[in-house]
Amino acid sequence: MPPETTSLVDDLVVTGVVPSSGKLILGDNQDLLLEAALVVDLARAGRVTVTGAGVDTRVHVVDAQPVAHPVLREALAWLHATTGPPGAQDLAELEAAGWVTRRVVGWIADRQGSGATLSGAFQGFKARDRVRAHLLSTGTLVARDRRVLGMRLLRRYRVHPPERREDLVVDLREVLLGEREPDQRTGPLLGLLGVANLFASSLNGAAHLARWAPRPRREEASERAHQLARTDGDVDGVRAVIEAVEVIIDERNEKRANSGS
């Protein structure tokens, strides 16, 4: 059974730790994946809603009441401060300043009330650092530092207890290979990893994930993960978030390919 405090964003980081090296690797789009996981967690908690599709997918705060998870609480406060409407009292005080200020206030309210795009919702939030610090503080991640040639400091991690990751990987592998049905924990996690193409090849920066499936079945596993991204039923906007991630990654890859040609 997963810990009571587990979240998609926690699971994503735990999944990305490579037991043999201690590196934390989630491919080239790990920041986007973590930010998407934050949105899914907040949507499931009833704090945000997701509208639109693709690059036009937007995140709206509908309930600014704090949640228990520290990083989700910080993420919600960040979204509310940057995209949520200002408080009624604040507006009244600003409007009392005169007609010009009311115009400015109206512009601010319109802009803030429109929500944020998925790619821009957490710009400057440093989700990776916050989630990692949270897991270190709870003891889920244990860090060890070593120096290379007496100069460069390398930080490596292990998951504690090891079963926290091992049990999750077993569940994910079984879903990938069609040996069990996905649930609310494994489905979105595999969907995010799948649209980032982390199961397709061992040459994508996350070889430890590709190796979950035997080499002859990696293409099958990758396709299965993509299917999961499209069959979640869009409960709490999960599918919309995952599809938006896929569109953003595809655009990034196209730009990279064009710049290299």
From TrEMBL:
KW Kinase (keyword) present: no
Keywords linked to the UniProt accession: Golgi apparatus, Lipid-binding, Membrane
Keyword Nucleotidyltransferase part of the UniProt annotation: no
Membrane-protein topology: Peripheral membrane protein
Top-level taxon of the source organism: Bacteria
Gene3D superfamilies: yeast vps74-n-term truncation variant domain like
Location in or out of the cell: Golgi apparatus membrane
Location (main, coarse): Golgi
Name of the protein described by the UniProt record: GPP34 family phosphoprotein
